Amino acid sequence: MTDQTQGLKKTPLHALHLELGAKMVPFAGYDMPVQYPTGVLKEHLHTREKAGLFDVSHMGQRLLTGPSHAVTAAALETFTPGDFQSLGEGRIRYTLLLNPNGGIVDDLMVTRFAGTQNEGTLGLIVNAGRKDEDDPFIRKHLPPEVKFTALEDRALLALQGPLAQSVLARHCEQAANLSFMSAIHADVDGIACTISRSGYTGEDGYEISVPADAAEKIARALLAEPEVLPIGLGARDSLRLEAGMCLYGHDIDETTNPIEAGLTFAIGKRRKMEKNFPAAEKIMDELFNGAIRLRVGIRPDGKAPAREGTEIADKTGRIIGRITSGGFGPSVNAPIAMGYVEPKFAADGTELNLIVRGKPNPARVVPMPFVPHRYKRGS
Amino acid sequence: MSEVRFTDQHEWVRLEGDIAAIGITKFAAEQLGDVVFVEVPEAGRTLEANAEAAVVESVKAASEVYAPLAGTVTEGNTALADDPAKVNADPEGEGWFFKLKLANKADFETLMTQTQYEDFVKGL
């Protein structure tokens, strides 16, 4: 038996995953839990019903530190389409690293921490599998006065689900009042953490950045709560697919741009007017005149899932696109998928065929998300 | 009296008379995880040995089920279409996939015995 874990990195919660009986798989260079004995289906449903704890420590936590918010935000804006000048203290924004052709180098979360001691600092959370590309890409674009730091001594836990707030409030009172896409520095069971109200499931929830050496203690404390089960990458994928969210390397990559990917919301209004982000002319042209393909949600009519790579045909049999993510949606209780199609086939209700095992399976374009988002927005 | 044999593709074959019922082993079902879709062959289909006969998909992945022996399908377990979870709940019972009238009953003897299969799984 060959040892497939050789050379793989481990998160600070690796031993805990093994203790919990997780099935481990290689993912983005890490040995990660794909599921626990509960199983993907029940883990998924439990997260939508109660609360699930995910180890997302493989993701990259990075800091940009400059002399002022204006300087750091301006530096970030040279390689992203977001408006970071206007990002309020304690607020989080989703954005994209764009290459000179407008292709997506990565998608990430950017946090502006509150307080004068954090002035000029922006926190980034990037995809695990893109750290090696992102780090040099970001460094290359930064002026000398903005410093890049990869935080290697931290873990990242996601607590997701409708009961996440009541669970976390028992360990950190301030967490309850945090609104969606906001972040604070606060103690969790007396340990200094950064808490973000955000996630990748479509549910209310948090991402908690913790010191690596305290990760297991906090994870155990949260898992001890009766509402919480550990959730693996399998359910993380089905949850995000139902929520209509992109998975980097599948639904978006360096060959897709924000318009095609349906991520136009990531382009700030001010940035659209200034047209000073990478490939702005091309991207703005596609925004107004249409892209050559569009990412859409797709529901197969039957029960057979259509997996990534499945060809999409029109009713005459012509191939008009490809599935980029597809599987079974446990909460939808049916197969769901997303993929790229020619724009004239992107309207909701458009009938398509998915070529599964050589046979055309009828399907239709549907709006995303497949399951409504249930975020806790500020009042 | 029936006898059960196994394949290295993690199928079980239960022979009763000259009809063989075929499904995936408990080990295979556990490896697949929650099964969400099953497609079984229709009665009357003739299958060569190792031909693709059925499809089983879990939340994680799609897999083919091959005909372990040549024969003619006498019945597909259509109940699995409505309740694919039977494959996880009772893989070597109610979760059977299809039944074959074997082209050559003697071929059955070429398959692994339970002990051989258990050793095979241990060696993986």
Summarize this structure as a short list of keywords or feature phrases.
heterodimer; A: 379 residues; alpha+beta; Gyrase A, domain 2; Alpha-Beta Plaits; Elongation Factor Tu (Ef-tu), domain 3; 3 domains; six-stranded mixed sheet; 9 helices; 19 strands; globular; B: alpha+beta; OB fold (Dihydrolipoamide Acetyltransferase, E2P); six-stranded antiparallel sheet; three-stranded antiparallel sheet
What is the number of strand segments of chain B? 9
Strand arrangement, major sheet of chain A: 10-11-12-9-3-13
Major sheet attributes of chain A: 6 strands, mixed
Second CATH tier, the architecture of chain B = Beta Barrel
Write the CATH architecture name of the largest domain in chain A: 2-Layer Sandwich
Assigned CATH class of chain B: Mainly Beta
- Strand fraction of chain B: 35-45%
The counted number of beta strands of chain A is 19
Strand order of the largest sheet of chain B: 1-2-3-9-8-5
Q: How many independent structural domains of chain B?
A: 1
Helix content of chain A: 10-25%
Q: Which shape of chain A, going by the Cα principal axes?
A: globular
Q: What count of helical segments of chain A does DSSP give? A: 9
What radius of gyration of chain B results from the CA coordinates?
Answer: 13 Å
Task: Characterize the structure shown.
Chain A is α+β, with helices and mostly antiparallel strands and 379 residues long. Chain A has 9 helices and 19 strands. Chain A folds into 3 domains: 14-57 and 153-242, Probable tRNA modification gtpase trme, domain 1 (Gyrase A, domain 2, 2-Layer Sandwich); 60-151, Aminomethyltransferase beta-barrel domains (Alpha-Beta Plaits, 2-Layer Sandwich), CATH 3.30.70; 264-366, Aminomethyltransferase beta-barrel domains (Elongation Factor Tu (Ef-tu), domain 3, Beta Barrel), CATH 2.40.30. In chain A, a hairpin with a 4-residue loop joins strand 16 and strand 17 (334-341). In chain A, helix 2 crosses helix 7 (233-242). The longest helix of chain A has 11 residues, at 131-141. Chain A starts with 13 loop residues before the first helix and ends in a 13-residue tail after the last strand. By secondary structure, chain B is of the alpha+beta class. The longest helix of chain B has 9 residues, at 114-122. The chains are: A alpha+beta (379), B alpha+beta (124). At the A-B interface, helix 2 of A face strand 4 and strand 6 of B.
